[in-house]
Structure formats: structure tokens, C-alpha cells
Amino acid sequence: MAFTIDISDRQQVHNLLLLLQPETRPLWGGFTAQHMVEHLVEQVEYTNGKKAGTCDRLPEEAEKAKQTGVYSDAQIPRNVVLAPPPVGYRYPDISTAINQLMQELSDFDAYFRKPGATSVHGGFGPMTGPEWRIWHSKHFTHHFRQFGLLQEP
């Protein structure tokens, strides 16, 4: 797979996140740096047992989308907008949000140590821990590029 961030390398993830400042501007899109981190927090919560996702696609459609989204080198395109950016913040500052994201990732690891654990992706249906690691790695890479933490390929 041609992603740049491996979410299993928590030191790399954390070190890159620490480069963010509240005033860091995105190269594209409407997120602030803190909104982006909080978005990642929420997405990981859907994969660590804290929130339950749903998928409205037929199983065969979801599986086809998963094959493209997870098992190919396809990248998430710039400026994909699935919802407007939030107005406020969930956490008092970006440092707190980063710490929370690191905790959610630890909880993700614990959740997927349970035999047979899955979590539902809104477009891909139920996914295993290894599938989520790939998807989160692609998703983190997308947003890290958005904020210049990683270079475009």
C-alpha cells in the first residue's frame, strides 16, 4: 500500500502532530488544525468501541467500495467534503486534542485485541483491525498532507 503514515508507528504520528500550531493553515479545505485533529479523534472513536457506525450500502456494494478504498493504492482526493466543518471545538486547545487522539488510538489497539472484533465503516461495512489500520493510515496521511505535515507524492 502506498500510504505514508502507519498509525501503528505512534511515535511518528505524535511527532508530526506536535508540529501543528493553532494558527497552522491548511493547504486546502475548511478545517482548522484543531478541527482536523478533533475529526480524527471522532473517526477513531468509531473504531475503538466508543461509537457505533452504520453502513447504508448493500453488502456487495460496501465490499466493492472496501476493495477500492482499503485494498488499492487509491488516495483520498483533496477537497472531499462529507459534512461542513464544525463551528466550535470539543477540546480547549490543540494540545489537549492531540493527547486525546493518542489515547483513542491506544483504545483502538485494545478494542481490536478482542478475538473477532469488527467495527462498521459508513461506506465499507464491517472491517477488521488490520483493515482499519490501513484505512486510518490513508485517512491520517490525507489530513497530514492537508496541513503540510507530509509532502505530496
Element order: H for helix, E for strand: HHHHEEH
Please name the CATH topology.
Answer: Four Helix Bundle (Hemerythrin (Met), subunit A)
Question: How many strand units?
Answer: 2
Poorly predicted sequence stretches spanning 5 or more consecutive residues: none
Which descriptors apply to this entry?
153 residues, mainly alpha, Four Helix Bundle (Hemerythrin (Met), subunit A)
Describe the overall structure.
By secondary structure, the chain is mainly alpha-helical. The chain has a single domain (about 10-75, about 90-145), classed as Four Helix Bundle (Hemerythrin (Met), subunit A), CATH 1.20.120. The chain has five helices and two strands. A hairpin with a 3-residue loop joins strand 1 (about 120) and strand 2 (about 125). Helix 2 (about 35-45) packs parallel to helix 4 (about 95-110). It starts with 9 loop residues before the first helix and ends in a 7-residue tail after the last helix.
Helix and strand arrangement:
Blueprint: H1 10-17, H2 33-45, H3 59-69, H4 94-111, E1 119-121, E2 125-127, H5 129-146
Antiparallel strand pairs: 1-2
Helix pairs in contact: 2-4
